[in-house]
């Protein structure tokens, strides 16, 4: 048998094992799932030294490949980041179990009592690139929602992900749950990805986490339903009625806190009225912080900026680069975002309630914010403990995908001898 044939057989076997595990997980108690996550969190922290050693191998290989600073930041693990991963698992463990929750309940005149209740999706496939923490987040959230999961991480994070996966297996063993509930694809061969995308009947949904190339490939080739966003082209709009000091703090944080995450601001829009009254101090702040500001119009006349190119608007830099331009009020901002945005996250900075409401009403991005940094576009910050990704589509899940979003529902109907005439 060819190597690709071997991989196809391996993936099929993993799918069968995941399907069997999902059937068990659908009936697992809330205490079992929470116990597994608590034990996994403990194992993560107890084995942090081994995880850091594994991550050092990944970092050395990534530097040798010439990965950008932002990509290296996404890959890097240290004790505080491992502690944050463990805390995320504990937060997910502490949440109410979504499985079995009654979403709606009503009686019909025909004698039927109807309940719509949450139920697991089944088997989730997660395909991701350089962020090893996705291993923990995805495994934990799928388990909490009663789903089995097949994890296929990128080559950049292979050693780190393997070490994190071992901690998740410890949790499953402690709780008496099947270890096949959280499986990790052991090969970096792309044939495994192709196999996952075609595993109809075994995988219920695919969640890609990565750059435009990966997500675009998954969306174009998958025969399995996909939760995805292509890019995080996030905008910050400074309105004419913005508080200048607040605007400066938010813009700087939105761009520079972590440039390599999908919630990082990629475009700054400034109302002409604000510019006329206050100038553009937030642009100078960005320049002072080492950000390359690719500007248009009057902003391009500021010392230190560079002229924006045709492709800079609507571009996800994931780096210390931002596009900037002046717009004519909130309508100008809305028009720009509709043209160049990816329906991920947009923030308006304003003290005007009516303007903020118009921004919220006229735009349809998955996340809209007022007077807040786009860096808050994160399931953990939304109280979900973590996220498996941020979906920008409109089918099933949208925005941060937490445990609740990894469920479907079914109808439970009871009656007292009801017959239909």
Can you walk through the features of this model?
The protein is α/β, with parallel strands linked by helices. The chain folds into two domains: 3-227 and 401-414, 3-Layer(aba) Sandwich (Aldehyde Dehydrogenase, Chain A, domain 1), CATH 3.40.605; 234-376, Aldehyde Dehydrogenase, Chain A, domain 2, CATH 3.40.309.10. The chain is 43% helix and 19% strand. The chain contains 14 helices and 16 strands. Strand 3, helix 6 (133-144) and strand 4 (148-152) form a beta-alpha-beta unit. Helix 1 (3-25) crosses helix 8.
Summarize the structure.
This protein has 421 residues and is an alpha/beta fold.
Comma- or semicolon-separated keywords:
globular; Aldehyde Dehydrogenase, Chain A, domain 1; 421 residues; 16 strands; 2 domains; 14 helices; single chain; Aldehyde Dehydrogenase, Chain A, domain 2; 7-stranded parallel sheet; alpha/beta; 19% strand; 4-stranded parallel sheet
Topology:
Blueprint: H1 3-25, H2 30-46, H3 48-65, H4 69-75, H5 79-94, E1 102-107, E2 113-120, E3 123-128, H6 133-144, E4 148-152, H7 158-175, E5 182-184, H8 190-197, E6 205-209, H9 212-221, E7 234-238, H10 244-256, E8 265-271, H11 272-278, H12 281-288, E9 292-295, E10 306-307, E11 321-327, H13 329-340, E12 345-349, H14 353-362, E13 367-370, E14 390-391, E15 399-400, E16 407-414
Parallel strand pairs: 3-4, 3-6, 4-5, 7-8, 7-12, 8-11, 9-10, 9-11, 12-13
Antiparallel strand pairs: 1-2, 2-16, 14-15
CATH class of the largest domain: Alpha Beta
Shape: globular
List the strand order in the largest sheet.
10-9-11-8-7-12-13
For the record, give the distance between the C-alpha atoms at the N and C termini, rounded to a whole number: 60 Å
Tell me about the largest β-sheet.
7 strands, parallel
Mean pLDDT: 93
> Helical region count?
14
